[in-house]
Amino acid sequence: VAAAERALKENIVVAAETGAGKTLVACLAAERAVTRGKVAFIVPVSRLLAHQQYVRIRDFLASAEQEDGKPSRVREITGYTASCWGEREWEDCCERSDVLVGTAELFRQAFVDCGWLRLADFSLIVVDECHHAGGESGVAEVLMRLHYDQSTLRRRCSDRTRVLGLTASLAGAQAKTRSDFVDARQDLLDAMQALVEPCRGLEPRRP
């Protein structure tokens, strides 16, 4: 709960072993964030993982009512459902949904390439498997646009879109030495503009 509350105030990366509760933190944060704006849950790796996370978030939020007494509306965004969408379809989806769960490339297209979604309308961006957020990935482009928009628009701290990263490994599999780990960890935190929040006291694995 503490990590979920912190995610609404500043950008953080929740680092913990698989099964330690990272998705629960994201669900709790999303439950709170939808009172301020929409939530995007970005899955960089695969449509299958995106679907699995969609089911978890949908089921969790189905039992959690908003202030108006209604459950949050969760929508799955993958190549199966949205690969041919244009501006009208994205606008309709956004109007009918509180939480969007989908793959990184579709969010990159909607946020960065075409501008069909406005980052300012979102209170929270959750990045699953965020150690994939570097380089020229779709997630990296979304984050760069977010950080640029917020720096140029100078939004008040309380109004800024927050970023919550989830990972079991801050450096990913490419880190072979301690130096590699330190460099990869810093690159990730720079991309996320975030601090590390170990989940339930668990420290991330080191090489």
Secondary structure elements and pairings:
Blueprint: H1 2-7, E1 12-15, H2 22-33, E2 38-43, H3 47-62, E3 74-77, H4 79-82, H5 87-96, E4 99-103, H6 104-113, E5 122-127, H7 138-153, E6 162-167, H8 178-192, E7 195-198
Core attributes:
nucleic acid binding; Rossmann fold; single chain; 43% helix; 7 strands; 207 residues; 7-stranded parallel beta sheet; alpha/beta
- Output the CATH topology: Rossmann fold
Which strand order does the major sheet show?
3-4-2-5-6-1-7
Mean model confidence by pLDDT? 83
Low-confidence stretches: 201-207
What is the gyration radius calculated from CA atoms?
16 Å
How many strands in all? 7
Structural class: alpha/beta
Estimated helix fraction: 40-55%
Explained architecture:
With 207 residues, the chain is α/β, with parallel strands linked by helices. It has a single domain (1-198), classed as P-loop containing nucleotide triphosphate hydrolases (Rossmann fold). It is built from eight helices and seven strands; from the N terminus they run αβαβαβααβαβαβαβ. Helix 7 (138-153) links the parallel strand 5 (122-127) and strand 6 (162-167). The longest helix is centred in the first third of the chain and has 16 residues, at 47-62. It holds the Pfam family DEAD. Residues 3-188 form the Helicase ATP-binding domain. This is Helicase ATP-binding domain-containing protein. InterPro entries: DEAD/DEAH_box_helicase_dom, Helicase_ATP-bd, P-loop_NTPase, RLR_Helicase.
Question: Gist?
Answer:
Residues 3-188 form the Helicase ATP-binding domain. This protein has 207 residues and is α/β, with parallel strands linked by helices. Helices cover 43% and strands 17% of the residues.
